[in-house]
Amino acid sequence: MSQKLSGVKGMNDLLPGELGGEMAPIETWQYVERTARELFSRFGYGEIRTPMVEDTALFVRSVGEETDIVGKEMYTFEDKAQRSLSLRPEGTAPAARAYIEHSVANLEPVTRWYYMGPMFRYERMKTGRYRQFFQIGAEAYGSREAAQDVELMDMVVQLLEALGLKEISLNLNSLGDEACRPAFQKKLVEHLTAHRDALCADCQRRLEHNPMRVLDCKNEKCQAVARGSPDILQFLCEPCQAHFADVRRKLDALKVRYVINPRMVRGLDYYTRTAFEFIASHPALGTASTVGGGGRYDKLVKSLGGPDVPAVGFGLGLDRLTLLLREGGQRYSAPPDVFIAVADEGSQDEAFTLASRLRREGLKVEFDTRGGSLKSQMKRADKTRARFALVLGEAERQAGRAQLKPMAGGEPLSVALGEIAQAVRAAPQAPAPQG
To answer: What's in the keyword line of the UniProt record (predicted)?
Structure first.
């Protein structure tokens, strides 16, 4: 017997209905994607699709050589031409690379893009965190204004509202810029050095190369040290203060609730000024968990060889959003309009033809090509939660009529075989049977 093969650990199949195990049904994912596409288009954002494989140097230069993502988590390999390539661990750097490569800055003053797709990181797994994970993100290039930052945050807020997700808070901070951040980092290093022995091994390394990342560590002892660290908001220069005040003022005008969190930093090196995270408190994700975040990265495009163009963006974890929706118990798949069952073997071909015709007429139709007993077919009809079952046998073929049985209960309808689609559309939309 051949050995059974399994998928790669941490990379999950997305299946319809209840087949997906710990993952939400694919219909839930499709619902989130449809909702996001429709909403983002209202904000003027267009979709882009970048390759899953990029030059490793793209992430070293953008995400940061000393970050955990580049140092520990990327899937990196050499191709046959000895080029170092990596599966993308995030979406902002590939979008910026595409923006530069296609000289978009020469074509329009402000560019708004969104993307959806899989990302890859070799990290410790838990509920909602996988080695292949899916992200919805958006990027805006060309505007330094606080309004652009707030537009993106408002877009996330409206998406979460459209999905019916509550108990998600917006955490807000400013990380300053090259003019004021060095003074903060100096004081931060002094504080962390005084408590070096309390830091984990990773944070002791970060202290030498990227001290702000210590504030993002999940180790309890490191968090205790971080709570006593200097407040970055006290070090902002006047332009950064004014920008952050404008962000807050515009959020207030939109009645978007937020919490200022001066200890919140993002896990990537390219952020400047505005940084934000959306935090969910829900048993489905264990403790409080980040479902998305973003911020401003005014120097990223230039650092990758492009023009000096400001930018701001966000990324949302689709895996976590779908898990939250699954906990709500809502179904996102439309049941069949009609399930066609056959009463005898001689009706199989005509039922097959009828199913095809009804699909051409716009109905969602299920038909079991295996045939089988009428009892087993009706069990299948019930399991699909179809609105109607239609039984086709010799008598129905001879009469040119059949009965549509409402699966949610009610009197059967006698309908001519050529008028089934019209009858289904005219019938009241009773709730589909729950299964």
So the answer is: Aminoacyl-tRNA synthetase, ATP-binding, Cytoplasm, Ligase, Nucleotide-binding, Protein biosynthesis
